[in-house]
Write a structure and sequence with these properties.
Layout lengths: L1 H19 L4 H15 L11 H11 L2 E4 L2 E6 L5 E5 H6 L7 E8 L3 E2 L5 E12 L3 H5 L1 E8 L14 E3 L4 E7 L9 H21 L8 E5 L5 H8 L11 H19 L4 E5 L6 H9 L10 H9 L8 H4 L2 E5 L2 E3 L3 H7 L3 H6 L11 E8 L4 E8 H4 L2 H18 L3 H10 L3 H9 L10 H5 L7
Parallel strand pairs: 4-10, 7-9, 10-11
Antiparallel strand pairs: 1-2, 2-13, 3-12, 4-6, 5-6, 6-7, 8-9, 11-15, 12-14, 13-14, 14-15
Helix pairs in contact: 6-8
Length: about 450
């Protein structure tokens, strides 16, 4: 009997050890050997052409990059790389002492086993110096989707006020049959961009012309704009009222800022654009570029270490490019399209080129992070305003790494994981649709 119990205990111990085993020294050693083998492929030989020369050649081509007879990218002014001393920037005067920023927190789109999809977005604006009244204003949007016409969802035609008028809420629904794929992505984008654009428009009069406004992310809702005009059986939001409202909202936001020459930028923390690298490769199929994403190229172009400067010295600077404009892109085309949908929407006040996306790239060596700063061409074509916007962004980066007001907005708007769970748990008649991965990894691990 004792031998049997001992055998059972040994089996349990063996199973525990088996399931808890991870990488052992022998495994780590072999992985290290693989790393060394791959890493050695990127070691420069003495006779190999330096990346610095390749980078300069590409930068020269960005003065005016064309494809199929159309300009893909054009430099505003000469192509150049600048560097700003962090110490000097911190000691300099803030070009825009009062700064505003807007951000949204989300539950992320959730799926229920009865076919309901739902996403909540909670939008807030932050101000530096702090303004409690600005911080207290909130906009909440709940976006819902079901494939069945028989399911009735009590949506909101008008905004419903709460908290003595400091908050607004609305329930919207994407029409059944509009989405067969990418449901959670589209639902999240509609909820996010509607809440943010509506909140910005609500608060516009609170921001003076001499103040600075930072949007979290791009200045345009790119994916919503894309799916509004793409002919697809899987995604059709071309007649969706909320999507149409989003597009018009962003046109109205840009119109307001261009009319008043009021600075606005989109601060893109994780730029994923690939248009420049793709255009270069299409123009010259024989060109051998190691970079897939534009940001990878710009990070190399702005790296002081790759120019032979030691890391300790490089960390004292922020490096940045000149401004570029992307004419003939999707954004301004929507304003001049012959599509009945777009002509109905786009009552823009300015020429199409004024809505064109303009940007510069800024690299913070200490963080090894590159950011893309966007603004409409209608603003940055003014050299004085363009230079002042650039100085403001560099000042904020030098001071805090990420603009302080943007971090404040993120903190105010964020919906913590525990609150997300409580929100979803409030659904009594709908049960969350879980998969194996949902049970294996909790929500915290996904972020």
């Amino acid at each position: 009997m004792q031998n049997k119990q001992s055998s059972i205990q040994n089996n349990i111990i063996i199973k525990i050890l088996f399931y808890s085993m991870t990488l052992e020294p022998v495994h780590i050693k072999e992985i290290h050997e693989i790393v060394d083998r791959i890493d050695s492929c990127f070691k420069k030989d003495d006779g190999e052409c330096d990346d610095a020369e390749k980078v300069m050649n590409i930068l020269d081509r960005l003065r005016k990059l064309e494809y199929n007879g159309k300009t893909v990218l054009q430099s505003i002014g000469p192509v150049r790389r600048g560097k700003a001393s962090i110490e000097k920037m911190i000691r300099s005067e803030n070009p825009y002492p009062k700064t505003y920023s807007c951000d949204s927190g989300s539950t992320t789109a959730k799926t229920f086993d009865n076919g309901l999809y739902i996403d909540f977005c909670h939008c807030a604006m932050a101000c530096t110096p702090t303004d409690i009244e600005i911080h207290s204003k909130r906009t909440i949007v709940a976006a819902a989707y079901t494939a069945s016409n028989r399911v009735y969802i009590h949506t909101s035609k008008d905004w419903e006020l709460f908290d003595n008028g400091s908050g607004r809420k609305k329930i919207i629904r994407i029409q059944p049959g509009s989405l067969k794929k990418k449901v959670t992505d589209i639902l999240h984008d509609v909820s996010l961009y509607l809440s943010e654009s509506e909140h910005i428009l609500w608060m516009l009069d609170s921001i003076a012309n001499e103040d600075f406004f930072i949007m979290d992310g791009p200045i345009y809702p790119k994916r919503v704009m894309y799916w509004m005009v793409v002919n697809s059986d899987d995604v059709d939001i071309s007649t969706d009222d909320s999507s149409k409202k989003i597009i018009q909202n962003y046109i109205d936001i840009m119109d307001h800022h261009i009319s008043n020459m009021k600075p606005i930028v989109g601060f893109v923390k994780n730029p994923e654009d690939m248009q420049i690298m793709l255009a270069l490769k299409k123009n010259d199929p024989g060109i051998d570029l190691p970079w897939l994403v534009d940001a990878q190229f710009f990070k190399n172009a702005l790296s002081l270490e790759r120019s032979g400067i030691k890391k300790r010295e490089a960390d004292k600077y922020i490096t940045y490019t000149n401004w570029f404009v992307q004419p003939n892109q999707f954004y301004e085309k929507m304003l001049k399209s012959t599509s009945p949908l777009v002509s109905e929407l786009a009552n823009g006040k300015f020429e199409a080129e004024d809505y064109a996306l303009s940007f510069f790239m800024a690299y913070v060596p200490k963080l090894n992070t590159i950011f893309k700063i966007e603004s409409p061409y209608g603003l940055v074509k003014n050299e004085e305003l363009r230079n002042r916007i650039t100085r403001k962004v560099l000042y904020d980066l030098a001071l805090d790494g990420i603009p302080k007001t943007l971090s404040k907005a993120d903190s105010i708007a964020k919906i913590p994981v525990s609150e997300r769970r409580h929100i979803i748990d409030r659904f009594r008649n709908s049960k969350i649709d879980t998969t194996y991965n949902d049970t294996r990894w909790d929500e915290k691990d996904e972020r």
